[in-house]
Amino acid sequence: MPNLLIVDDEETTRNSLSELVPWSEWGIAEVRTAENGVTALKLAQHYRPAILLADIRMPKMNGIELAQRIRDLYPACEIVFLSGFADKAYLKSAIQLQAVDYLDKPVEMEQLKQVFLGIVKRLASAVGTKGDIAFLRQEIVVDLICKKGDLTDWIARASPDMLQLRGGGRYRVYALTLHWALAAAEEERTVWKHSMLNRFNQADAFPGTRMIAGFVGDNCLVVAAEATIQRGGEEKGAAEGEAEGEELAWLMLTALLDVCPAGACSISAGCSDMTPRTDAFAGLYKTALTAARRHFYHGDSRVYMPIAATAGYSFDFDKSGYAGFKRMLREAAAQDVIDYVRRLSADIARSADPDTNKIRNLFFNHLRILFEATMQWDEANAGDENETTYMWREIDTRATLEELTRFLLAHVEMTLQKPAANGVDKIDEIKRYIDHHYASNQISIQSIADHTHLSQTYLCALFKKATGRTVNDYITALRIEKAKALLLDRGKKLYEITADVGLIDTNYFSTLFKKYTGMTPSDYRTKSFHEA
């Protein structure tokens, strides 16, 4: 049964549609609501609506724009528009989007029923179309990899069009790991991932290859493929089979790089061994993923073939070394600290420890100690839990050991070698940027960091050290002060003031306003008029 997303900025309409309509009787499995297009788009990235019922005229993002964005994510999504206005321009856009219907407010129950019964019937008959095939193939991949399912069971249940893999062959798994740039927004990633999946589910996507593909987790596209084991009636040798596997991995890697815009994502491909077993895909995936993760030491945009396990290659860091690093920051010259980081990186590279999460944690701890010693930054009293998150995120988005090393060295140089006056100049630059952009809902730590050419981590630490408050707190306090002035205008509606200070959700704005002033926006407006 399909699900439904209702989007309307009028609370009465939204609640009436969600609570008073017998959706389950009409074949709708689940209904969710959103008060505006921006909120709806965020929800849709996880909810994956089969049907969108949206008001056309809404603040910030109208229904047409929302529908266009939803269609980018889910091309098969059925769209129904609501409107209290007869607007030819909107009707034309609705036609171009191939909307199912266009309902006038107030909505008549019988008309709504007929529209949705028709949609549900059409969706039920559409199972097996391209969009459904891509989704179901992903479900098969997840079952084979994560639940250790057996391909034989799926062959018995699925049609040849749905599942190209057949029994009696030899199989190989490819893991294509995605390393997103920090600037790649979540909604952009979702669109690109859908494009990648659609590319791999095109008919004869890689000529002569029988395969299925799907994402396992957020950042790994997994392909289960049937290897060609014969040539001219004779079985291929191991070397020839491996060369074929590597060639296909390169084709897959190139296809993904073509989909993703330059600079948004780096990608590495790992390839497993072959096996005739139909219940061994989980093990093949582990082998392929381990191979792909060698990019940490050798670079991305490459194909990595499986190698024999090597016993005992582990980088062991004595935790007393953290105390030594802290002492070095207090007592040693900047160049000594730089040399230490370079030696540490070289030792890690020689070990080629496959536990890259352990290595990332080691770099995180060094960065944390650096800020504690030089910026008076304290994780326990940072004032904003997001500030630690920024540090983790920036560590995590460095795809290779070389990138992590450059990142840590850059912060050592900034904190130990830059003159204090430069820090004052940067604080002024940060404040000017916020003063000019607080009214935009796109302002973020990332946008400020990009403008000032600082990392998010250093930006937060520097600002907190200089001002005693977090960047987010400074932005919010400024917005509240601007909102106070706007509330003195009786003609200004609350949702307009919310938008004018760079926020989207009126309820969130009211909660924030009360937190900072001790009263609701309405109470503040009333009090101000009485005092005047």
Verbal overview:
The protein has 532 residues and is of the alpha/beta class. The chain folds into three domains: 123 residues, Response regulator (Rossmann fold), CATH 3.40.50.2300; 175 residues, 2-Layer Sandwich (Alpha-Beta Plaits); 122 residues, no CATH class. 56% of the residues lie in helices and 12% in strands. It is built from 23 helices and twelve strands. β3, α3 and β4 form a beta-alpha-beta unit. The longest helix has 22 residues. The radius of gyration is 28 Å and the shape is flat. About 1% of the residues have low confidence. Its main location: cytoplasm. It is found in: Cytoplasm. One of its GO terms (biological process) is phosphorelay signal transduction system. One of its GO terms (cellular component) is cytoplasm.
Give a short synopsis of this structure.
The chain contains 23 helices and twelve strands.
Overall morphology: flat
Radius of gyration: 28 Å
Beta-sheet strand percentage? Answer: 5-15%
Secondary-structure-derived class? alpha/beta
Q: Averaged pLDDT, please?
A: 84
Question: Number of folding domains?
Answer: 3
CATH superfamily of the largest domain, please?
Reverse transcriptase/Diguanylate cyclase domain
DSSP helix count?
23
> How many distinct beta strands?
12
Classify the helix fraction into a percent range. 55-70%
Question: Which architecture of the largest domain per CATH?
Answer: 2-Layer Sandwich
| Biggest sheet character | 5 strands, parallel
First-to-last CA distance? 58 Å
Task: Give unreliable regions as ranges.
Answer: 230-234
CATH class of the largest domain equals Alpha Beta
Strand order of the largest sheet: 2-1-3-4-5
Q: What is the CATH fold-level name of the largest domain? A: Alpha-Beta Plaits
